[in-house]
């Protein structure tokens, strides 16, 4: 195995979902590029549980980051997000918690996450978190998620 990779226990192995986000392991890989660039991770079918009603909540998540030394391994990221399926928390805590955990594990130069939540009680809630300042010259496209317009 190349020195680019730390020990990857999840990739290539059958894995169940972690019981909660705290138990999830976010594996990382050495950044394979010397140039500055942006990574986008999109989860259009993210789910969590309302901590009050126990009902499912749904969001379209978009994570953008400029790597420094590490990138997140995508299967580990998928399992991490899946660990929220039975996790009860508010939209704000889920969205910012995902961003903060990524910052802790991969220490990017810059990161932003947009959590575009589907309506609860008739009100869609969009939550945004950013870490650091975007590096000068980094191309950052729009997240491409239109505001919620209902059926109209």
Automatic annotation (TrEMBL):
UniProt-recorded Gene Ontology molecular function terms: preQ1 synthase activity
Pfam families assigned: QueF (PF14489)
Pathway membership, UniProt: tRNA modification; tRNA-queuosine biosynthesis
Location of the active site: 50 (thioimide intermediate), 57 (proton donor)
The keyword Chaperone appears for this protein: no
Annotated compartments: Cytoplasm
Transmembrane parts of this sequence: none
Domain of life: Bacteria
Biased segments, Low complexity type: 10-22
Broad class of where this protein is predominantly found: cytoplasm
Enzyme Commission number: 1.7.1.13
GO CC annotation terms, alphabetical: cytoplasm
Keyword annotations from UniProtKB, A to Z: Cytoplasm, NADP, Oxidoreductase, Queuosine biosynthesis
InterPro entries linked to this entry: GTP-CH-I_C/QueF, NADPH_dep_7-cyano-7-deazaG_red, QueF, QueF_type1
Catalytic activity: 7-aminomethyl-7-carbaguanine + 2 NADP(+) = 7-cyano-7-carbaguanine + 2 NADPH + 3 H(+)
Binding site for substrate: 72-74, 91-92
Broadest EC class assigned to this enzyme: oxidoreductase
Region described as Disordered: 1-22
A GO BP annotation: tRNA queuosine(34) biosynthetic process
Keyword Transcription regulation: no
Family stated for the protein in its record: Belongs to the GTP cyclohydrolase I family. QueF type 1 subfamily.
NCBIfam families according to UniProt: QueF-II
General function of this protein: Catalyzes the NADPH-dependent reduction of 7-cyano-7-deazaguanine (preQ0) to 7-aminomethyl-7-deazaguanine (preQ1).
Name listed for the protein in its UniProt record: NADPH-dependent 7-cyano-7-deazaguanine reductase
């Amino acid at each position: 195995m190349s020195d680019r990779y730390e020990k990857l226990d999840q990739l290539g192995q059958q894995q169940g979902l972690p019981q909660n986000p705290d138990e999830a392991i976010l594996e990382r890989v050495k950044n394979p590029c010397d140039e500055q660039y942006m990574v986008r991770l999109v989860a259009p079918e993210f789910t969590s549980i309302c901590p009050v009603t126990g009902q499912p909540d749904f969001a379209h998540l978009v994570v953008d980051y400029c790597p420094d030394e590490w990138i997140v391994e995508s299967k580990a990221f998928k399992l991490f997000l899946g660990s929220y399926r039975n996790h009860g928390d508010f939209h704000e805590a889920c969205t910012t918690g995902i961003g903060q955990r990524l910052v802790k594990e991969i220490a990017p130069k810059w990161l932003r996450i947009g959590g575009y939540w589907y309506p609860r009680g008739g009100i869609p809630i969009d939550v945004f978190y950013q870490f650091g300042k975007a590096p000068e010259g980094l191309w950052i496209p729009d997240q491409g998620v239109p505001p919620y317009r209902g059926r109209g």
